[in-house]
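Here is one chain, start to finish.
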Amino acid sequence: MNRPDLRISLDDATWRGLLALAELYRTTPERMVKSWAEGEVTCRLGQMLAGMPAELIVPKVGTFVEVPAPEQCRCWTINGYRPTGADESLTVSLMVASGELPPDFYFVARILRRWAELGVVARGTVMDRFAWPAHTALGGPELTFGGGRRWTLRFAECDASGLSELGVLVEFNGTEVTGIDALTDATEC
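Its structure:
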């Protein structure tokens, strides 16, 4: 999916109005323009989210189908995806909240091509963090991508004692692990 350009024009009437508000609120015109621009971007991104199709095609991965999502979010999922060289199938989701950019499809494809390596890193980090024995099973991997380079991996099937049925969540920024959480309740987008 090509990313559309988002262009915002500041016409003369709006500029004059922002100048007047800056004087009224005793702030700088730059702050007023920044606030106005942030509002415009959020509004446009919300419109873009509403206009996204029910099926998304990620090059070299496949077709993601829209599934139910929390309010103000949209989610597309592909089940049973098996990256090259992987010994397990993945559930991969693309989650977009209103006001956010959709995931970079090429980034998603690059991460999935490196699944064998990143899955080992995630498992090793979880095992070390919780000091679990080597025979502890971590399965049912579910990857969720949002905007930017942040994504999560949830091991939905874990046989560690004291762990809820929600499993363990590993947070990534690119290829670096940035957090680990033993899930205790439902998370939002």
